[in-house]
């Protein structure tokens, strides 16, 4: 860590850790929080020095703009611990850059790389014991920035709060997913904020997702809002489909999140000699492939979801079932990406980042 | 008020009012808050009884879903005081209903009408002295609901907080507005949440609005995200245009807020014998009307904005100037709606609501 910034990270430790109250063999996703958090305030046009403080309540005026105008962006990351108890991150600079891309679109201040990385590393070193080593578990990391300034005028806040909180977590999804290809509701507009990890993108998905859940699906696959003909993403993950032996995913756009797992999967698959196409995928192409037997797999990819296989999908009141294959692309690619993440294999791409 | 609910509204008064610190002759918009607020919590599937408490900080866990997933909706209302010191609201049940429409789309619990109305009335009676009587001022009322439950899982919160805060306020805009007809960015998607007063709809507008401000405009007029050919709304207000003597506004849709000022203006104008058309308006029609001299007026309409005349607009790097007329529709309609709101005229539509 560069002394310039790290010197300034003050650490206020908890008196008593609550780690002994946690059952690391039965971790939910994102519901248990570690002892500390990183906090950094933006005020008078600049970010203050990051501080590590006990994890605890935030106090805000009722007029704080986060309550009214949705200025919030976040990232999802994971810290992994290997057999030697060393801590690893996966492509963390990509999260840092994307947080700033999101912030810019929401008219929020960008955060210097050093504040993000050095703050995160200092926090992880302090919370090292919280990183689970049980199978499929990791320390989920949630960096987020929100508008903490006051006022009912619909204009950007003059104050923001950057926080990193950590949660030892089990898998996001349990088992295979049944998804609904949405034909009425939409996640994002052309020229909108769909590419940003902005809070408002998620709230808008909950109601249509609840409708899908009532019909027996777990997630919605969003389609473009103009024609509902091209698949986009699933809100908590990007979508891959396999037709025969070709892996296909939609290109990123101003409507689709540039997922770090997504782009890593593309690179790993190409490296494995798998044919990969990044192009628009029409729902009709998927239906046709399902009907003629060439649709072999669908899966979601994201930091929280990792790689989540899809067992079938609904479209216009009809259900389509994916075949049960051995040696799926999903399983192979999941093994390869998690082996890199947990330091169980060589890292030929240079994606792993050591925290020490 | 029905005793059934009002019995349950507990009131905790401040010891010392801060009203004497306020300069009622120089009120900004939405920056000064009254002594008390109404608070009501949703937990275990139901709303608790509303409480009136001193206006003050709200304490939330860093994992509260409002920070991460944008579940927040709000309303904007005003309380007016007439020459007899009586308090008036304008079509308050429409705000109450729309808050629930917004909540439903954001997968948030709907609030019973009595909790909203009786809570609001009790609060206004307590804050009566805060309602300004200076010209163009009113007590701006901000009812809002946000996700207060915890968790990093991208799913609806299990807890919510409903708050009504009040702010004695001057005009939202000063003077006439120069607006930019947006051709790249968009406010909302077909099948999205544009019709809801959801926090995320506002954050997404700030960056494009900043770009417009840098070019010398104050507001953006949004167009449909598919073609950018049809005008929608301006984010903080609906848009009316006058071509010759016909007043035209876009129909509401799932992308456009069903503004209470908008629909009142339509009714008042019709009642005045003004020809009103509610239909799609293309940008080309506006340009053509500007070029041939038939474009007489443009104005915005909203609770905060009231009726805000537009002096000119930019489109594709070119500026168009609106004529300076005497006896504008904007001025006439503004007088008529505010005369009803402030109890300066008869209320033939039955819109005024007495708080006592």
From TrEMBL, chains A, B:
Q: Which GO terms describe its molecular function?
A: branched-chain-amino-acid transaminase activity
Q: Which UniProt keywords apply?
A: Amino-acid biosynthesis, Aminotransferase, Branched-chain amino acid biosynthesis, Pyridoxal phosphate, Transferase
Give the SUPFAM superfamilies listed for this entry: D-aminoacid aminotransferase-like PLP-dependent enzymes
Needed cofactors: pyridoxal 5'-phosphate
Q: Which PROSITE patterns match?
A: AA_TRANSFER_CLASS_4
> InterPro entries from the xrefs?
Aminotrans_IV, Aminotrans_IV_CS, Aminotransferase-like, B_amino_transII, BCAT-like_C, BCAT-like_N, BCAT_family
Note the CDD domains from the entry: BCAT_beta_family (cd01557)
Tell me which EC number(s) this protein carries. 2.6.1.42
Catalytic activity annotated for this protein? L-valine + 2-oxoglutarate = 3-methyl-2-oxobutanoate + L-glutamate; L-leucine + 2-oxoglutarate = 4-methyl-2-oxopentanoate + L-glutamate; L-isoleucine + 2-oxoglutarate = (S)-3-methyl-2-oxopentanoate + L-glutamate
Pathway the protein contributes to = Amino-acid biosynthesis; L-leucine biosynthesis; L-leucine from 3-methyl-2-oxobutanoate: step 4/4; Amino-acid biosynthesis; L-isoleucine biosynthesis; L-isoleucine from 2-oxobutanoate: step 4/4; Amino-acid biosynthesis; L-valine biosynthesis; L-valine from pyruvate: step 4/4
Its biological function?
Acts on leucine, isoleucine and valine.
Q: Which family does it belong to?
A: Belongs to the class-IV pyridoxal-phosphate-dependent aminotransferase family.
What is this protein's name? Answer: Branched-chain-amino-acid aminotransferase
Give the organism, scientific name.
Lutimonas vermicola
